[in-house]
């Protein structure tokens, strides 16, 4: 025992707390919690004002803010009989709300601001609108009123002068919905020609949209506007305390945005965008004091309407009214406001609600963990008909239940692929899994006769996605692992069998691989609606993971033969992936056996997690993924042959399995670097704190204002840090067995707790020099393994053991000291 005596002083030093002191001190994680302390949330500051707004701090409850605006003068009109033609115009349709709408050029001179000309060449230019007056008109200029859903940015205005066309004005970089364009000199003419060469690119498309062209320079009194900042993305029902108003029912318009960049008259996303509405919420203010709570619906018939719940950071309030809301709401008068607030409806994640927590020596990682938890909380809300995304998403079977929506502002509908990440985040932070179970059970209840499980309630459970039934399988296994709810597994076992033994075999080719295109699936999408076909590595690697998870569910419910059969199939698919989809020249798995050669983050990461890749293949594939590293993360493709920005687009959703793969392949330092680039970028850019749906070229929001800046599928940093860096994870349902396998990388210490059905499972570890210490406390009646670094000396609960880094223990408290 001479070797033991030689190292005892070091062991005693560690046991005394010198090396492990940070990990045994009182936890301070509560300071990182992001959520509001109450459901009555107030803005933190007035960001800006314009027009006649006095005492804007009244919006914060400090006195009374007053908005004043004189009535706009009558608009000039063209001579009767004036006509307009255009290079193209969109065909009539129902405008997204079932109401017939036309888009012909005559709408631009009809005096009706609710109609507009819409060209028919999306993103292609020039777009030309020519106005022919019935009689000569003296013009100092013209005024363009655009449709609020995108405005012409670059355009010229020509006039017919002395029988010839000449350019009278040139406009560049316009963002104003109403733009007065002065001519270089006054002219009397019968024709004006507007040529657009660039429009705003909006979620509704890049079109030229002009509601009115007025003959003359229109200078309306400025609209009083105030912009409020709530400090971070919030969700719920806005409220305004009105101290009174003038007797003419002045209108107030509200628009919302998660970022300042996309804040304007129209919200960056609102449900009325998708139903033909104005993209803002309207209210006609009464003369007497009142508190208005933003509620979905209209004050009268189809006039003065609002959307109700919103997810946003910034709120724009203006004294204004839509022309279509007259006479119920007027764009002038006086409005007095004594406070603005929000009824916060999502899960309120205060320190007292955390059943699991995480803390480490790295302040950045701590902030990202709790910011991601808050992101997930914003989507954890009650499913309500008035709040869900309007595209056929309402479902009576979900109504009133707690669910995991995709995001705060959109999509407010639970998707199972997103639950694959947001569910894990939920299990590791607050809940017992109720929200995830409600989603998983409901989707299974709507299983198609051929075994396919819908991804969400959207489009009445018919949205055709190829990969999401696999996510239902893996998410169901995760739910049972964390919750121990084997009754759920038993209730939906037949659905599991039907998915794996009926539907996926119907899209399996002669080489034993899933092939999108078989059995009528050519038009099916996936998590990003990527135009992939044939044998795709991601689909097949996820299939292997689903079969492995299904085997766990089978064993948990007494179906051992099914488990063996599915594991055998998984081995066959894995062998086929290696035989047909490995690209030795690139040292990575092909994205698809069909089409241009490329290599995807999703397929390679899942191949590693599924055990398809050998250790050498995993190392090579991860090096390939890191080769295109960006300041804001790792891109999801290594070239642009699938989509034009494949090498510039970053998804936290597809980055999460890469992080897992790096931790599990002994590359903890590179995983931490990737976390810091991706989550650090989002934390440092507007709106801050919350995790975005996707990051685009240059670190932008990848789908402009449509992008959700608080999306549950981007919260993988929570399970990455808890399961992989801290190292705590279940190995059988309900943590009956578990594993603690730290992957410290360069982190000095970490500690945390994971909720289990029998109580918290806590772990803390520290490394200092050649000494590593780990303490684990697990519920009685459970057992697990401790995976620690190999060392010259290993002490388990004070006793020297000879082990290859893996120690079997029962519930209770155990301490391991390793001298390397």
TrEMBL record:
GO terms for biological process: carbohydrate metabolic process. Residues 727-792 form the Alpha-L-rhamnosidase C-terminal domain. Keywords: Signal. Coiled coil: none annotated. Residues 70-101 are annotated as: Disordered. Residues 84-202 form the F5/8 type C domain. Residues 1-25 form the signal peptide. Residues 406-626 form the Alpha-L-rhamnosidase six-hairpin glycosidase domain. Residues 82-91 have a biased composition (Polar residues). This is Alpha-L-rhamnosidase. It comes from Amycolatopsis vastitatis.
